[in-house]
C-alpha cells in the first residue's frame, strides 16, 4: 500500500503560527525602536562613542553567564508563558525609563533587555516546530526573517519620527506600548505544552544533558561550524560598511542607509520566495545556496568601484541571508527533539555571537593595516568555506541515504 503524505494547507499553517508571528514582529519592532532612540539619547548625554559601545557589550554579557540556565528554563516550562512574561518584562523595563532616565538606568535596562531578548529569540525558535509541524519549518523561519527585515527598515524610521516629534520620552512610551501589545498577542496562541520525559529530572541534570547534546551531537557540531563561519564573515564586514562607503568609495556616509535597505529588500524577497513554494525547500539545499550568494556578494563588494555595484551586491547578500540561516535553524529544528531545542539554540547562539563579536573587533583593528577591500575578500572566502562544508555534508548525507535504501 502506498503511503500518503498529508501536507497541511497554508490557511491552517497561518492560523497555527499567526499569533506567534504577530507577537514576534511587534517585539522585534520594539527592539529596533528602543535601540535607535536610546543610542541617540545616550550619545547626547555622554558625547562618547565608548558609552554607546558599552551599551551593546552590556547587552551581550548576560548570555555569556546565563546561557545554560536560560536554555534549560525554556525547555522546562511552558514556552507560551515564557513569551508572554518576557514581553511584559520588556514593557516594564522600558517603562522604568519614563520615570527615571539616566546613564545608570539605561545600562540596567540594557542588561534586563539583553536577557529578555536571548530568552525570547531562543523560545521562538524552539516553539516554532511544535506549531508549524516539520513540513513547514522553513516557511516559519522565513516569516521570522521577513519580519526582522521589515522592522530593520521601518523601526529606525519610527524611532526617528518619535524622537523628532516628542523627544526620547515619546520614543520610550511608544516602545513600552508595543511590547505590551506583543504580550497580549501571545494569549490566543494555540499551544499546549508537551509532556516531557525529562520533567522528572532535576534542573541541573537537564542543564548537563543540554550541554552534552551541544558538545556531542554531530548535527549540532556541523551546524555550529557552518553558522560560526557565516557570522565570522558577515560580522567582520557589517561594522565596516559605512566606512567602506565613505572612506574607500569617497561617497557620503548617509549612503549606508541605502545599502542596508537593499540588503533588507533581498532578505524579504528571499523569504517570500521560500514561503511561496508549494513544498517547502530542503534545508540542506538552502544552506549552500545562501552561503554561496553571501560569499559572492562580499567578493563583489571587495572589487566594487561604483555605488550601483555595492547595492546589487548587498541585494544578493540579502537573498543569501534569507536562505542560509533559515536552513541552519530548520536543520536543527527538524533533526532534534523539540524538548531540547531551547538548550540547543541558546548554546549555539552564544557561540556564534561570540565569534561574530570577536570578528568585529579583529576587523576593526585590521582595517587600518590591510585595507577594507582585503577584509571583505577574506570574509567572502570564510563564508564560501562554510558553504563548501555544508555542500560536502549534504553530499555525504545523500550518499548515506542511497546506501540505506539499497540494503535488503
TrEMBL record:
Record-annotated membrane-spanning stretches: 12-34, 54-74, 94-115, 158-187, 224-244, 256-274, 286-304, 310-328, 348-368, 374-392
Swiss-Prot/TrEMBL keywords: Cell membrane, Membrane, Transmembrane, Transmembrane helix, Transport
Compartments, record wording: Cell membrane
Main location: membrane
Protein name: MFS transporter
Span of domain Major facilitator superfamily (MFS) profile: 11-398
PROSITE patterns: MFS
CDD domains named among the record's database cross-references: MFS_MefA_like
Membrane topology of this protein: Multi-pass membrane protein
InterPro entries xrefs: MFS, MFS_dom, MFS_trans_sf
Amino acid at each position: 500500500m502506498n503511503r500518503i503524505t498529508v501536507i497541511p494547507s497554508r490557511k491552517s499553517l497561518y492560523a497555527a503560527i499567526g499569533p506567534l508571528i504577530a507577537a514576534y514582529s511587534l517585539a522585534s519592532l520594539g527592539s529596533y525602536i528602543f535601540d535607535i532612540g536610546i543610542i541617540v539619547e545616550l550619545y547626547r548625554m555622554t558625547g562618547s562613542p565608548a558609552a554607546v559601545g558599552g551599551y551593546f557589550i552590556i547587552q551581550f554579557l548576560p548570555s555569556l553567564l546565563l546561557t545554560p540556565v536560560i536554555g534549560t528554563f525554556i525547555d522546562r516550562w511552558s514556552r507560551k508563558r515564557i513569551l508572554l512574561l518576557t514581553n511584559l518584562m520588556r514593557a516594564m523595563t522600558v517603562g522604568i525609563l519614563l520615570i527615571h532616565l539616566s546613564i545608570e538606568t539605561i545600562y540596567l535596562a540594557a542588561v534586563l533587555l539583553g536577557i529578555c531578548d536571548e530568552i525570547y529569540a531562543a523560545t521562538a525558535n524552539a516553539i516554532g516546530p511544535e506549531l508549524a509541524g516539520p513540513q513547514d519549518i522553513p516557511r516559519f523561519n522565513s516569516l521570522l526573517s521577513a519580519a526582522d527585515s521589515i522592522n530593520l527598515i521601518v523601526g529606525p524610521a519610527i524611532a526617528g519620527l518619535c524622537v523628532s516629534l516628542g523627544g526620547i520620552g515619546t520614543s520610550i512610551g511608544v516602545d513600552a506600548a508595543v511590547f505590551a501589545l506583543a504580550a497580549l498577542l501571545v494569549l490566543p496562541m494555540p499551544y499546549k505544552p508537551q509532556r516531557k520525559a525529562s520533567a522528572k529530572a532535576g534542573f541541573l541534570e537537564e542543564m548537563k544533558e543540554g550541554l552534552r547534546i551541544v558538545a556531542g551531537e554531530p548535527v549540532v557540531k556541523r551546524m555550529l561550524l557552518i553558522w560560526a563561519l557565516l557570522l565570522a564573515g558577515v560580522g567582520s564586514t557589517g561594522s565596516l560598511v559605512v566606512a567602506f562607503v565613505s572612506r574607500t568609495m569617497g561617497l557620503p556616509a548617509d549612503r549606508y542607509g541605502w545599502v542596508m535597505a537593499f540588503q533588507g529588500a533581498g532578505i524579504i524577497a528571499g523569504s517570500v520566495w521560500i514561503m511561496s513554494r508549494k513544498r517547502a525547500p530542503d534545508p540542506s539545499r538552502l544552506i549552500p545556496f545562501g552561503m554561496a550568494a553571501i560569499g559572492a556578494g562580499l567578493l563583489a563588494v571587495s572589487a566594487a568601484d561604483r555605488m550601483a555595484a555595492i547595492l546589487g551586491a548587498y541585494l544578493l547578500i540579502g537573498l543569501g541571508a534569507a536562505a542560509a540561516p533559515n536552513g541552519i535553524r530548520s536543520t536543527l529544528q527538524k533533526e532534534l527533539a523539540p524538548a531540547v531545542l531551547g538548550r540547543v539554540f541558546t548554546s549555539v547562539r552564544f557561540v556564534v555571537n561570540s565569534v561574530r563579536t570577536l570578528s568585529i573587533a579583529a576587523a576593526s583593528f585590521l582595517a587600518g593595516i590591510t585595507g577594507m577591500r582585503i577584509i571583505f575578500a577574506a570574509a567572502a572566502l570564510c563564508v564560501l568555506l562554510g558553504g563548501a562544508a555544508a555542500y560536502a555534508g549534504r553530499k555525504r548525507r545523500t550518499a548515506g541515504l542511497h546506501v540505506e535504501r539499497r540494503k535488503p
